[in-house]
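Bench notes, afternoon.
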Amino acid sequence: MVDRGESAPAPFRVVFVCTGNICRSAMAEVVFRWFADSVGLGAHVVSSSAGTGDWHVGERADHRTIEALERRGYDGTRHRARQFTSRDFDENDLVVALDRTHDRILQGWARSEADAAKIALLLSFDASAGAVRDVPDPYYAGPAMFDDVLGMIESACRALFRQLEPAIRTAV
């Protein structure tokens, strides 16, 4: 976990990154936070999201994202899009790209080996994803695609959280 010089253990911080931060990464932020909250570790995990582009900065998540989240019992209404900055490398323990394009962009923005070592693809944590590495962008599709993408994100976030949970519990 990023050392902030505090006496209490710093929370584990993860940022999810997609293109505009209104669909995939917004979903992942909400879902990952739900996993932490559901096992009583919400105070020890910070989940955020950002986009590689600035097209939607300040906007709410896409209405289809919010609706897909609501259908599964999540609340995505508080989300506001923002763009990833170099400060995100400093403030997060893990930078999770939603597809290989985002991974390449983030690797290019990494200022050091330490920054680059924080970057991972979301689906790389989910064995059930098989050879699939990219969470598809549902932006130009209908509501059913948003539901499908949310299912992929839930499965991968569950796998990621299960991997991180023992270390988070040990740190608290």
